[in-house]
């Protein structure tokens, strides 16, 4: 049985709207046409794509997988269209999924170098889970994340290390750099902290390295979505935070790094995520070499 590609457009519309009727409105066809095309597509797969008993269409596991494949393919087509230059020649495309701060403040300056000027860059930001999903379903050629996940289809390789630092408002009274663990812990117990999305591992590593364990409770001054917002609140005197050291290049005189020479520097890591068996494309390999140069520098 031959599959008509227009059935996939109909499937995506039904998936996104949760209704054959709304999908029909979006596609300017009748609901019966949508229903027929979905039956044809399900007949080709030999299994249902939606559960029809609920008031809203619910995708089956097969429907979820098909949607991921179709949207990934559409993304590749759009990238290919964007990559064609004025002469009709396809330019190379590098699709990257990464954590936000590493992507903005480490990868972006590297990608701005002349070596990548002829490359179409697609840079998407997300949590580690979202980065893994993007690489796994083919929406990204390479990913960069802060943690390793168990997977039979993805490989993880350590590519970058960076220090974590405690930041505070300038002018705040802080312990001396030679303060012992007890004095540091007593001071921190009276401080409030500004946190941000996906900061738990960052805070955890710094506290475990500095105090030996993460406190059971931290006084919260604020919770932000982005690390930049957290730094702005620290600058405004709202509290302390823990951030990657490379973020210090973005702060003004209102924020200072608090260091204790009695404690070792806390380091965190970034891993390159790729599909098992995939060869590093030329542009991906160039980017990895540029990251390695930062490490050695």
UniProtKB/TrEMBL annotation:
Lineage: Bacteria, Pseudomonadati, Pseudomonadota, Betaproteobacteria, Burkholderiales
Annotated family: Belongs to the LysR transcriptional regulatory family.
Source taxon at top rank: Bacteria
Residue ranges constituting the HTH lysR-type domain according to the UniProt record: 3-60
Pfam family, one: LysR_substrate
Any GO molecular function: transcription cis-regulatory region binding
Cross-referenced InterPro entries: LysR_HTH_N, LysR_subst-bd, WH-like_DNA-bd_sf, WH_DNA-bd_sf
Listed name of the protein: DNA-binding transcriptional regulator, LysR family
UniProt entry keywords in alphabetical sequence: DNA-binding, Transcription, Transcription regulation
Keyword Lyase annotated: no
